[in-house]
What does this fold into?
Amino acid sequence: MSSGPGHIELERALNSIRVGRRHRADLGDVDGLAASIERDGLLQPITIDPEGSLVCGLRRLAAMRKLGWKTANVWVRSGMSDRLGQLLAEQDDNAQHKPLTQTEAATLYRELKTVMAEDAARRQEASRFTAKTDRGGPDGGANLAPPQNPAGKARAQAAQMVTGRNSYTTLERVNHLQDLAADLEQPAGVRSAAVAELERIDAGAGVISAFQRVGAEQSLAELDRLAADPAVPAAAREDARAEADRLRAGQSATRAAELERLAVDALARVRAASAKKPRTRSAPAAGGREPRTLRAFLLTWDDLDQWWEHYDPADVGPALTDEQWERFAATVAGTVAFAEAAEAARRLPEQRTA
It folds into this structure.
């Protein structure tokens, strides 16, 4: 038996290891992995908890059983909640690991995020209790380590565990589509659109465009509802019907981001009419351009989320013409100036109440 940080290593009978529920249904090429283990040996032991439940290494365990192994060295790890330990089984880092699909990854991320937040709350409560009751030394509770998984970081930590990156936006979008697909209170068109987009995502389609198309479908469903609602003024009902027809007529030829923006703006116009609010036009912004809605602003920045990770500055810099570079630099400068003005506006309520 040997020990290391956070675990001990010992020999264990493979038939005594319990495998609980897993998000992965297909283990991939277990034969190839078994051949690799038979040729090179087990390069990294599987991990179990003190009760003998598998923590990580499901494919390695299946391969060893396929080879007829009766026992193998395992790592025994403690100090985590039972459910968190079970979820870590999805993090099999073998070289022949079969990647999770986007929807499998999002499902795992959702549960990891929830369990890690619960684990953080449990640790935080335990540390507060110990800090209040520990009077054995001059420092009291100050020597206690903070919780390993602060609740506010659960999303980033779960995303890091599932994808290797801290960015969780894509996973959250897939989770939202999964929620819509399973929500029986959603209109049938929204549910079926969400199901279809999840299938497209697993087939390799982009998540952002899928999210935007379903967002547009939600706005269309609300327009349909307003068009059929007798409590809505007749003019607004007619507007809702006309807006929905117009959007559907161009739906297949319109980019997802533009379709969602058009649908959101159309719904906003109809809602304003149904509430009998006067249709006042805002003054044009600087440069004579018409101002857009706050929702359109949010959609624009959703579309730009982490955009810089998709381009190489060494390629972009030399490739742009002088005019293109000036336009890019002006956009950056305008964005910085806008951000500074918006941040100053955010501080105004604080200054008034100070």
Observations:
- Residues 92-96, 133-152 have pLDDT under 50 and may be disordered.
- The longest strand covers residues 7-13.
- The first helix runs from residue 30 to 40.
- The beta strands are 2-4, 7-13, 46-48, 54-56, 71-77.
